[in-house]
Amino acid sequence: MIAAADLLALTLLKAPGDFGVDVVVGTAQRFGVPMNFGGPHAGFLATSTNYSRKMPGRIIGVSVDSNGNSALRMAMQTREQHIRRDKATSNICTAQALLANIASAYGTYHGPQGLTEIAQRIHSLTHLAATAISGKYELMSGDYFDTITFNCGEDRDRVVKACEEEGINVRIMGESFIGLNFGETFTRDDMVGLLKGFGVDNPEETIQSMSQTLDWRQIHFSSDLARTSLFMTHPVFNSHHSETQMLRYLKYLENKDLSLNTSMISLGSCTMKLNATMEMIPVTWPEIAHIHPFAPEHQTVGYRDMIRDLSDNLAKITGFDAISVQPNSGANGEYAGLLCIKRFHEENGDHDRNICLVPMR
User: What domains are there in the chain, each with its CATH number?
Assistant: First the structure.
């Protein structure tokens, strides 16, 4: 059994493993990684101990060496082509590893208590909006964590436009439905704008009144779905919760690393190791980092122009007819290349050429 899950929601919701789920997949975007117009975001793949040996990547365990000391042991799983040619199933790229480090640092800084408080605040905001707006439109959601849907009927387009004028994008669903999703960056001013967009009377007074009676630790889904098990119990997630503590811990990790400021990097070809700081700074600009992938096209003209210019320039430099900048890792690039080859054969009527030969050497 496989479940798709949200890491932040799992601070309040029962762990999938408690339901007998074998494999859990999802994204770590909620752990401090900006939207970036749709990525890249670190994905995660977790499984029970029964299937851990079938996982791609590396497994780190604790062993005892010949002198009786504790030692970390790394077991190679099916991974990159040059490591396990006959069983290669995965290509772990820096485009994912860097984002995984961001997410892990976010989890280390906040710890289980901090993450739970963030999730409780998001859940409370969702409940506040659900309660306030349900007086105007029918709430279609039963149990919810951070996502709710309303049936706005013939008012849907008017509500969408009114919310956009308040600086709020909502999700259009079907002919009459509007979906809302709440996150860590959602503010009181955002809530005022949202309620105005939905036509709620006196939104500021409504928020003030509801906030006085709202228990932000209360859950608004079935109690049998509530989490009771502990998580993130390792000391590293319960030790570094101030800026100075976190800074010292990151420096401690840096001192263990082989990097460009101490040596040459003898292995790996991932280009993000070699990007200059001035090239990386624009990635943090709000105009680039905080664009939602579902934002209306008229709000992303500059972003799409930037991508188009890059694609056109790369096409001119390489002599190709067109360039796609969508792949975010070598594995994505290889897959995109295979799709191009497949389409080439189909365009030439070679529909039977559907076998890919992978040389051993």
Answer: 93-269 (3.90.1150.10), 277-347 (no CATH)
Give CA–CA dist 106/246, Å, rounded.
10
- Tell me how far apart the alpha carbons of residues 342 and 329 are, in angstroms, rounded to a whole number: 20
The continuous run of DSSP H or E covering 123 comes out as helix 94-133
The per-residue pLDDT string of the chain (361 residues; one tens digit each, 9 = 90 and over) reads 999 999 999 999 999 999 999 999 999 999 999 998 987 888 888 998 888 877 776 677 888 888 999 988 876 655 554 455 555 444 455 567 778 889 999 999 999 999 999 999 999 999 999 999 999 999 999 999 999 999 999 999 999 999 999 999 999 999 999 999 999 999 999 999 999 999 999 999 999 999 888 888 888 899 999 999 999 999 999 999 999 999 999 999 988 877 767 777 655 545 455 667 788 888 889 888 999 999 999 999 999 999 999 999 999 999 999 888 887 766 778 888 889 899 999 999 999 988 888 766 5
**Rg (the chain; Cα; Å):** 24
Q: Which helix (H) or strand (E) segment is 139 a member of?
A: strand 138-139
Single pTM value for the model: 0.84
Residue whose C-alpha is closest to residue 109's, from 274, 237, 17, 254: 237
Strands 70-76 and 58-64: antiparallel
In this structure, which amino acid lies at residue 322? Answer: A
Measured between alpha carbons, how far is 30 from 99 in angstroms, rounded to an integer? 11
By residue count, the chain amounts to 361
Annotate 52-112 with DSSP letters as a single string: GGGSSSEEEEEEE-TTS-EEEEEEE-S--TTT-GGG------HHHHHHHHHHHHHHHHHHH
Number of C-beta neighbours around residue 349 at 10 A: 8
